[in-house]
Amino acid sequence: MDEHEKPYTTLFNAITDALDALDRLNFGQAKEILEAGQQRAEEIYIGEDK
Known about the structure:
- The chain is mainly α and about 50 residues long.
- About 80% of the residues lie in helices and about 0% in strands.
- It contains two helices and no strands.
- The chain has helices spanning about 5-25, 25-45.
- It is elongated and about 35 Å long.
């Protein structure tokens, strides 16, 4: 897996989960999912997960 693939899949999965939450009109959960996905992808990208 190249260095950009894991952050990308992390964000992609968070977006998918957030869209599911939005379908259920759970806006707070969607926001939390996106924020957590963004933070996790950033951690991976800057190397805390290497």
